[in-house]
Amino acid sequence: IMGRLLCGYSAAAIAGPGMLAALRSRGDWTAVSDLATKVDPHTFEKTFGAPMENLQELWEKKTVSIQNLLSLVPPEMGVVDPTHTLYATTFYTMSGILAGAAMCSWLVRPLDQKTLKRVVDMRTASSSSSASKK
């Protein structure tokens, strides 16, 4: 059991931060692409020196950010800064995974005494037969 726990903890330590970063990046990209639809394409090209079609490339190079795009959105559109919701889907996803793990943990039950006795008897028999072969 300890080996399985250590394996699970190691997998969580490796996969967890990567998953959080990927989910956060997806939330950031969604916010950027949504804000870009509210910006005038001519203003976008004048500001960033590239057409709107290059949005993803500009975002990956950190040329375009949420704050940059917010400054280009006309105030009369009433667009709210989306940075406070960037982690929403990340937290929902991680909460779902945690709930699934809790359910799996809750479903684990102790072995029945008959099954445990049979396993112990099998191990005893196999160890005594291997000892007699030596």
Report on the architecture of this protein.
The chain has 134 residues and is an all-alpha fold. It is built from 6 helices and no strands. Helix 1 packs antiparallel against helix 5. It is elongated, with a radius of gyration of 27 Å. The two termini are 30 Å apart.
List the defining traits of the structure above.
single chain; 134 residues; mainly alpha
Task: Describe how the helices and strands are arranged.
Layout: H1 2-36, H2 41-48, H3 55-60, H4 66-72, H5 88-107, H6 113-133
By secondary-structure content and strand pairing, the structural class works out as mainly alpha
Q: Unreliable stretches, pLDDT < 50, 5 or more residues?
A: none
What proportion of the residues form beta strands (DSSP E)? under 5%
Number of H/I helices = 6
